[in-house]
Amino acid sequence: MSINPPDAPYPNQPQGQPDFQPPSGTQPPPPGGQPPVPPQPPAGGQPPQSPEGQGKKKHTVRNIVIAVVVLIAVIAGCQGLTKGSDSSSSSSTSSSTTQPATTATSRPATTSAPKTTQAAAPTTAAQPAVPPEYQSAAKKAASYAGSMMHMSKQGVYDQLVSEYSEQFSAPAAQYAIDNVKADWNANALAAAKSYQSTLNMSPAAIHDQLTSSYGGKFTQAEADYALAHLND
């Protein structure tokens, strides 16, 4: 048996061809001649997920659940507002329908007003009659303040209570003055023209005579009115 030297070719290798070298980056075939099998993906066709991807998936599911809860709360709130508006409209409708009943019940109070007026009528008619003295004093006052005498208000009163003239009581004379119808300015003007035509008095003397307590007894305003219209 002969031993080949180290650099001698194999017995079955053709002469002139180099030894077989596998390409770079590949593993030589295992013994037996079968090539290596690449790793297969897990069942279901999905590649294995990293822990970071699984955390993102859980976060997305939680956001979806929160969004669904918020949507349900919004829908419930809208339904509550709708029910509240329906109840307020129904209450306003019921209050408007009850208003005619209030108006109907207030009518009897209006019809009772004439009864109160009828009950007060006898009180007005029960006033005492004017005493005869008061009536006589009123007639005398009308004659003194009329177109014949042209006396002032104070002059008429003094004439009614004077012990040398009418001698009426003070209440009767006051009643006559309060109820007499006279224009005291017109009386002062008539007296001033009488002083001017019959006595030929000056305007200043006429004014003094009109306001004198021993003369006409007119007020200052009435005397001023008479002098202002003396030559009209």
User: Main β-sheet, in a few words?
Assistant: none
What structural class do the secondary elements suggest? Answer: mainly alpha
Number of extended strands: 0
Q: Element order, helices and strands?
A: HHHHHHHH
Shape: rod-shaped
- Radius of gyration (CA) equals 67 Å
CATH class of the domain at 131-182: Mainly Alpha
Estimate the mean pLDDT confidence. Answer: 75
| Portion in helices | 55-70%
Distance between the termini: 188 Å
- Beta-strand portion reads under 5%
CATH topology of the domain at 131-182: Arc Repressor Mutant, subunit A
Per CATH, the superfamily of the domain at 131-182 is: Winged helix-like DNA-binding domain superfamily/Winged helix DNA-binding domain
Helix tally? 8
- Which residues sit in consecutive blocks of at least 5 with pLDDT less than 50? none
Please tell me the CATH architecture of the domain at 131-182 by its name. Answer: Orthogonal Bundle
Region (Disordered): 1-59, 82-132
Biased composition (Low complexity): 85-132
InterPro entries: Ltp-like_HTH, WH-like_DNA-bd_sf
Biased composition (Pro residues): 1-12, 25-50
Please tell me about this protein's structure:
The protein has 232 residues and is mainly α. The chain is rod-shaped. The N and C termini lie far apart (188 Å). 60% of the residues lie in helices and 0% in strands. The protein is built from eight helices and no strands. Helix 4 (153-161) runs antiparallel to helix 5 (170-179), helix 6 packs across helix 8 and helix 7 packs antiparallel against helix 8. Residues 1-59, 82-132 are annotated as: Disordered. Residues 133-180, 183-230 form the Putative host cell surface-exposed lipoprotein Ltp-like HTH region domain. InterPro entries: Ltp-like_HTH, WH-like_DNA-bd_sf.
